[in-house]
Specification:
about 550 residues; five-stranded antiparallel beta sheet; alpha/beta
């Protein structure tokens, strides 16, 4: 494995802090809980963790509405606890990435409060997108854009003197006003924020909405104003992926390189980049910009060998061609869990469930065996690909989506804004089960005994970590064994792959000197595409056979390749 640039082939575990482990008994996970869980993650074998936002916030979007970028919300602890977490992680050899949110802040941020109190044309308002409305009395929004989470992208304020006033832009919710990155105060402020956390020892940042920040300077009407809300994606070409954003990432990269030059530790920038193509994606990971950007096309690909081969080949050609490595993902805190996504697609028989899918509230059972088999196979395939991989918490347990949460417990702002359960994300954020037979399944401890912030279904008893660790056939052991092999064998990590000729429904490639990964996308067994020494399989495979909905790794002598 290439050890120049630890991030190039790293496996990072995403910790959704409020759902990982609660140390105080208030029903919400916290930084002390993350620290307590680090030995578990060390045993799993990951290289680092990405922490979801824990900054002071009114929690309208669970921390992605930041009121203070240089603090810790009391819900999650304090800076002293953060420092303990950093020290413990580094002692265990685990790197720590923070989630930073530069596109927007909270409506409770001091600068936004100052903007509300100031008048039109003030320096305070110039930090955001404040402008007059249209129409004779300014009662119409400045343009026709819609917010990604539903409703208009503009909210009108009441001026300090009580008159109806200007409008401000928010591409997500009214509680998340967008920064105006054309104002030089904003890049200067975020450089200060980066340095604050880098000085505390962090190893890098996951950048939220990294294709955002800048808007078309004239804020014109969109020909498809509801595209973002309809797709829950950054589709409005006037609001996302503006060319000026690349200068921001060049500046941030320079800051990271400055710290690396000082102590030799490489700091990582990984972006949440949602753009139309792998070629456009590659622009974000040029040598002087972000180190990596999540490649979501694998996550969204239909369960089909041709579709998987297409997206993998495009990524290897366009992204790896920049000198970066592809950053593979199958899930995160915004997506339907992999087991359920693949299981629903199988039951419908009509391709993949969308990345954020709608499920009937009455459907109470977790996804079936086929979804689980496909999720296991996809995990083994991802871990065999050249580059880095990110694993969302609970995927290593095979957790299904919780699809029947009652309306009165849903907290996703999408539900609040639209009144619809479509694409609501709470189901993948239910707190992890650790032990026991009944909720809270070891998630919460301490002097209080509050219920978990989202209710855990009774069937989570089948997925608790203590049970997974004891069962050598569990998802957890598949991930752990795959990570151990990935770390030990020189064929893995960054590099290239070569596709092999295979029968229909089978996808296979070779890595390095004779390491083969193959996936049977069909449901019937087929002959193994190679002969060799079996290393690991996601399901039961008799000698010479690749079972249906199964992936396997072999070491061969290369004669039949």
């Amino acid at each position: 494995m290439n050890r120049h640039g630890w991030w190039r082939d790293a496996v990072i575990y995403q910790v959704y802090v409020r759902s990982f482990l609660d140390s105080t008994g208030d029903g919400i996970g916290d930084l002390a809980g993350v620290r307590a869980g680090l030995p578990y993650l060390k045993k799993l074998g990951v290289d680092g963790i990405w922490l979801s936002p824990f900054y002071p916030s009114p929690q309208h979007d669970h921390g992605y509405d930041v009121a203070d970028y240089c603090g810790v919300d009391p819900l999650f602890g304090d800076l002293a606890e953060f420092d303990l977490l950093m020290a413990t992680a580094h002692r265990l050899g685990i790197r720590v990435l923070l989630d930073i949110v530069p596109n927007h802040c909270s409506s409770e941020h001091q600068w936004f409060r100052e903007a509300l109190a100031a008048g039109p044309g003030s320096e305070a308002r110039a930090r955001f997108h404040f402008t007059d409305g249209r129409g004779p009395d300014g009662a119409e929004p400045p343009n026709n854009w819609h917010a990604m989470f539903g409703g208009p992208a503009w909210t009108r304020i009441t001026e300090p003197d009580g008159r109806p006033g200007q409008w401000y832009l928010h591409m997500f919710t009214p509680e998340q006003p967008d920064w105006n990155w054309r104002n030089p105060e904003i890049p200067a402020e975020f450089e200060r924020v980066l340095r604050f956390w880098l000085d505390r020892g962090v190893d890098g940042f996951r950048i939220d909405v990294a294709a955002g920040l800048f808007k078309h300077p004239e804020l014109p009407d969109s020909p498809d104003p509801e595209a973002d809300a309809r797709t829950r994606d950054s589709v409005n070409a006037l609001a996302w992926n503006q060319p000026e954003v690349h200068d921001v990432w060049r500046n941030w990269r320079a800051v990271c390189e400055e710290y690396t030059a000082g102590d030799g530790r490489e700091r990582l920038l990984v972006g949440e980049v949602s753009v139309p193509s792998a070629r456009e994606h590659a622009k974000y990971v040029r040598p002087d910009e972000l180190h990596q950007a999540f490649f979501f096309d694998l996550l969204g690909a239909p369960w089909d060998p041709d579709a998987f081969r297409k997206v993998i080949s495009e990524a290897m050609q366009d992204i790896a061609g920049t000198g970066s490595t592809v950053t593979w993902v199958l899930n995160n805190h915004d997506q339907v869990r992999t087991v359920t996504r693949y299981g629903e697609a199988a039951m419908e028989g009509s391709g993949p469930v969308p990345q954020q899918a709608t499920f009937a509230p009455s459907q109470t059972l977790p996804a079936g065996a086929l979804g689980a088999a496909r999720a296991r196979a996809a995990a083994l395939l991802m871990l065999a690909l050249p580059g880095a991989a990110y694993v969302y918490q609970g995927e290593e347990l095979g957790l299904p989506e919780v699809v029947d949460l009652p309306d009165d417990v849903l907290t996703d702002p999408i539900f609040r804004r639209t009144g619809s359960r479509a694409r609501v994300r709470d189901g993948c954020r239910v707190p992890l089960p650790w032990s026991g037979q009944v909720s809270p399944f070891g998630f919460t401890s301490g002097t209080r005994s509050a219920k978990p912030w989202l209710p855990q279904p009774s069937y989570f008893a089948e997925y608790v970590t203590e049970r997974a660790l004891a069962d050598t056939r569990s998802f957890w052991h598949l991930y752990r064994d795959g990570l151990q092999l990935r770390s030990a064998l020189p064929q893995f990590g960054e590099g290239s792959l070569r596709w092999l000729d295979t029968p229909p429904d089978v996808l296979a490639f070779v890595r390095g000197d004779g390491l083969v990964c193959a996936v049977n996308f069909g449901t019937s067994p087929t002959a193994a595409p190679v002969s060799g020494t079996p290393l690991l399989a996601s399901g039961d495979c008799p000698p010479g056979v690749l079972a249906g909905s199964t992936a396997a790794w072999w070491i061969t002598d290369g004669t039949d390749l």
